Amino acid sequence: MLFQNGNLKVRKLKEKDKYFLVKWLSDLTVLEFYEGRDNPFDLDKVNEVFYVSKDDTVKCIVEYEDNEIGYIQYYQLDDETKKEYGYLDDNIYGIDQFIGEVKYWNKGFGTLLVTSMVKYLIEHKQADRVVMDPQMKNTRALKCYKKCGFKKIRTLPKHELHEGEYQDCWLIEYKN
């Protein structure tokens, strides 16, 4: 287990978790905000994206009361990304996450998850900043991130391909 905050646990991805990822990433309600409804995942795609890739991203499952409810990943920003975002030599981590079980939406689990992960990265990875790049139109997520202490830094025009169109995103950060 990576960390626990009350009944919320975050642990590294296991082989058995691929079936949760397929379920969540083929749900059109989830895909509307993460990956896109035109980009559903099957078992082969989950294996390729989450289990075969050789990057340094730490991929994790989110549990609440021992039920798998979502996914979160973190990674240290490389020099190219830091330059793109306008950062110098800080120890900066990025995170991406989603609550895959829709019945857990709008109940504070996203806020609990993000604040817990930020605390973990600051305390265990000595992160100076934690950044994300949510789409501007994802108002529910942006509201959550604001509650977690993230600040909008700047726009990232046409930053992410989502449902056939490049979407504008915000660069947001939590500064330690």
TrEMBL record:
The name on file for this protein is GNAT family N-acetyltransferase
From what organism does this protein derive?
A: Bacillus kandeliae
Q: Which UniProt keywords apply?
A: Acyltransferase, Antibiotic resistance, Transferase
Q: Does the keyword Acyltransferase apply?
A: yes
Supply the Pfam families for this chain.
Acetyltransf_8
Alphabetized GO MF terms: acyltransferase activity
List residues of the N-acetyltransferase domain. Answer: 8-176
Report which superkingdom the organism of origin falls in.
Bacteria
Q: What is its EC number?
A: 2.3.1.-
